[in-house]
Amino acid sequence: MNANINNPGIGQGGKDKDGEMKKLLAKENLKDVPKVGDLVEGKVIHISKKEVHLDIDGITSGVIRGPELHDESDEYSDLKVGDTVAATVLDIENEKGEMELSFRYAGHKKAWDNLNKLMQEETVAKVKVLDANKGGLIVKLGKITGFLPVSQLSPEHYPRVEGGNKSKILEKLKSLVGQLLDVKVITAAEPEEKLIVSEKETLKEKQEKVISQYKVGNVIEGKINGITNFGAFVEFGEGLEGLVHISELAWQRIDDPRDVVKVGDKVKAEIIGIEDSRISLSVKKLLEDPWKNVAEKYKVGQIIPGKILKINPFGLFVELDNDIHGLCHISELSRKPVESAKEIAKEGDILKFKILSIEPAEHRLGLSIRAIDEPAKEKRPVIENSATGKPEIAPEVPEATKNKKEPEVNT
User: Fold this and answer.
1) Which of 43, 84, 222, 302 is 20 to 30 A from 381 via CA?
2) Is position 149 within any domain?
3) Domain co-membership, 97 together with 140
4) What is the DSSP code (8-state) at residue 323?
């Protein structure tokens, strides 16, 4: 082959064969004189294992050979003599006087054109799963390799693993290798050869119709089908799925959703948000708020036992009962400076606390250990102000004068 892409017009013997061919094609009134990189159409006149020959408008012939027979679009996989096909010009004239052509470049362009068409028309296509990594699946659409991110998997194939173990997630993804999945193309960038597909998008239209039957405030019944560190997934209705965030599982503070629910549990929940196909649920909204009656259980100034649930840099989280938890700030742990709450207690310890504040609306209750040991302040009497005649608290007597005797007066 004498296909010199950088200088395609120079052939054997130093002749400007590119120029000669252009003159010939122009003389024969070919509409557009092709140049290297153009697509030309021709009729198949000969096929062999190594070469395909085309007739180009009855003016010249072209040949596709070797690696240039490779076609990513699959359009040329079943050629017959007499078929009309398109090919990319590599050289206007080779050593045999034929136009040097390529199915590879033409097929590559057509393949990406097809992918862009699939994306624009939101057409569902099938891909084969070739491999998996921690981020998702390696797939093949036609002859183009692409990627299906974990976030774009359908609920059926999404790898929910207890504790988010990455090795187990990869194991679940690997189990999909070899399967055919329905997807939609969401990115098709030919220059970067970047193809990204989504399985979740194929369900969007169907889900939107089903979701339209629900609105915020509706109560649903479903089954826990997955648990993560940030919440629990609930399957309900006709293939719908919602997320109960950890903060919406119960009124009390929860460190791990698995402490209150497990996979397979049947639950009732209220829909608190619908955004596109994402549904947010709340279990606790259907439960009575225990903080409404907190004033019947506890009073400011009361000294009560509490169990240490968690130790944080800013203090202790304390369980007063199954529903009511409070916070003892690090500044309330001791009359002496404390650098870490771990100096005072460990998780599971039961200590006595004094209630400093109760805020039912904010679900907050402030506790103190230091206040238990503080001496009670002297209660000062109420006296009448001689100037205004109004009652007021008597001024505090300075410590230095409390025990000082009045001087004796001689009469």
Assistant:
1) 302
2) yes
3) no
4) S
In a domain, 395, yes or no: no
Burial label, 125 (beta-carbon count in 10 A; 0-12, 13-18, 19+): middle
**Whole-prediction pTM:** 0.54
- Give me 357's structure tokens: 């504040």
pLDDT digits (tens, 9 = 90+) for 242-257: 999 999 999 888 888 9
DSSP helix/strand/coil, 132: strand
Amino acid at site 57: D
Largest CA distance in the chain: 148
Domain CATH for 367: 2.40.50.140
Host H or E run for residue 23 = helix 17-27
> Which pair of structure tokens corresponds to residue 158?
């999404």
Q: What is the pLDDT of residues 32-91, one digit of tens each?
A: 678 888 888 899 999 988 899 999 888 888 998 888 877 666 667 788 899 988 888 999
DSSP letters, 240-303, are EEEEEEGGGS-SS--S-GGGT--TT-EEEEEEEEEETTEEEEESGGGS--GGGGHHHH--TT-E
| 16/101 same-domain check | yes
Q: Which residue has the higher pLDDT, 234 or 74?
A: 234
User: What is the rounded CA–CA span in Å between residue 17 and residue 404?
Assistant: 124
Number of domains in the chain: 4
61 and 22, same structural domain? yes
Which position has the token pair 């205004």? 388
Residues 6+ apart with CB under 8 A from 193: 144
Q: Are 90 and 101 in contact (CB under 8 A)?
A: yes
Q: Give the domain extent around 313.
A: 294-373
Residues in the chain: 411
In a domain, 389, yes or no: no
- Residue 28 included in any domain: yes
| Distance, CA of 375 to CA of 372 (rounded, Å) | 8
Q: Are residues 261 and 330 in the same domain?
A: no
Retrieve residue 164's tokens: 């988010």
Q: Point out which residues pair with 188 in neighbouring strands.
A: 195
State how far the Cα of 287 lies from the Cα of 404, in Å rounded to an integer. Answer: 62
Do 219 and 171 lie in one domain? The reply is: no
* 3-class SS letters over 83-137: CEEEEEEEECCCCCCCEEEEHHHHHHHHHHHHHHHHHHCCCEEEEEEEEEECCEE
